[in-house]
TrEMBL record:
UniProt protein name: Solute carrier family 23 member 2
Subcellular location: Membrane
GO annotation, cellular component aspect: plasma membrane
Species, as recorded: Culex quinquefasciatus
Residue spans crossing the bilayer: 36-61, 73-93, 99-117, 175-193, 205-227, 247-270, 390-411, 417-438, 445-464, 484-503
Database matches in Pfam families: Xan_ur_permease
Database matches in PROSITE patterns: XANTH_URACIL_PERMASE (PS01116)
Leader sequence segment: none
GO molecular function terms listed in the Swiss-Prot or TrEMBL record: transmembrane transporter activity
Membrane protein topology class: Multi-pass membrane protein
InterPro entries: NCS2 (IPR006043), Xan_ur_permease (IPR006042)
Amino acid sequence: MEMMDNHSVNVDSGATKEPLKRGVDINYGIDDSPPWYLSIFMALQHYLTMIGAIVSIPFILTPALCMEDEDPSRGIIISTMIFVTGLVTYIQATWGCRLPIVQGGTISFLVPTLAILNLPQWKCPSKDVIAALDPEAKTELWQIRMRELSGAIAVSALFQVFIGYTGLVGKLLKIITPLTIVPTVSLVGLTLFSHASETASKHWGIAVGTIFLMTLFSQAMTGVNVPTLKYRKGHGLQIGWFPLFKLFPVLLTIMIMWSLCAILTATGVFPEGHPARTDVRIRVLQDASWFRVPYPGQFGIPTVTLAGVLGMLAGVLACTVESISYYPTVSQMCGAPPPPLHAINRGIGTEGLGTVLAGLWGSGNGTNTFGENVGAIGVTKVGSRRVIQWAALIMILQGVLNKFGAAFILIPDPVVGGIFCVMFGMIAAFGLSALQYVDLRSARNLYILGLSIFFPLVLCLWLKDHPDFIQTGNETLDSTLSVLLGTSILVGGCLGCVLDNLIPGTAEERGLVAWSKEMALEVDSDETIESNTFDFPYGMSLLRRWRWTRHVPFLPTYKMKL
């Protein structure tokens, strides 16, 4: 595997002028095109990394949709998510921010999704009632909920499209401070703890074993490389070293624990019907068709309600801030200049467009930058845009293979529960990491932090137990307030934002100085004028002839500052 050699490949000349020696240790830079056979192999690594992160989402989503465990449509939803991930990733890497990032499903949208589905009109009937329904009624039971989610996701994402393509992202980040981001992102993980405990408790031994392997592979064995054969032109076969545990800790953990559950199932240790058995949902795989092309409106025309749209805005805002924080990091890792304003604007706008497409396709989720794939770039030293484009093509093809998506439904619940414990904990920690910018010795900051994290949990859990408490006499207003006040990340983010912007505090105390440097949003387009890294692949000569394009925030010819 040539990509793991210690040699460096020449990257864009603009990157070598950076004082921080951006991409000095890179094997393939952002504008490099590795041979097609190497590109496909390296693209497979990104694909496998993505699968490990995306496969857990339907395990929370489908039960909330009132879908039975053995419903083959669960495989269709996974295939749809993979298909949309590939489609949006290609658009983002080619015409969006043009960074080598993967855009896919995100946990951030699950919190408002569960708040919407907790409304009285969307709560699931008992299992006995569902079991007594005929097949058509069962299908309509979950599809009507999917249509509600699809409409809410697609319409709320138009806000992200708007702030991205109009260049309002920078203005928005002036009020979205670190003390806004911390509760917004960390509450994504904290709010979902009940789902992790419910799934893991189906067999604590398997769940703890999953956590142990995840910890072992991702933390203790990251420096352990596995010997592999590689071929280099003119040198023949050689032995190379591949960071297997550092690159694929989630996938390795799932495969090992899945295999262990299969052995315990075959030997009869797990009795019939035990949730840790690997054949509990075997019917899903048997009934799934081999090929199926996902298409917009495949579950019916999306419906739109005010409560759903406003609730989903919380997920959109969380994803926006999270993606912006990745752009400077990815750019430096792959040897590119700092992303100019037009690339950031276009990236956020394109992510919003991708979430609109995800809603229309019926994935039940939005799109966001995958942090796991960002880490893969740092490990492999491969930051080529062409590799991500190949990975997107693989995702699109796999999304058409319906059997493949159905296979992941067979992962035993306790294994998924163990993954949840790690994944939700990491999301909470990622949100808390923004505290590095603020002064934690300040009583002001501690007050805002504590209140904006604790109060949303109290309020949202209470409203979940008392869904009929809000009675204004208007059903639409009741539903809207129930969703807004029941979405912890929205309550926490708004509370943190209001308190941080109203309570007096210095810029250094609030972390605004360090935060503005991290976001790299003050980059003048003149600094990167010699580089065409973020230019469109076609049509640039035409754009440069039109002077008005210099005032369009998402075009590469944009020259204005914030």
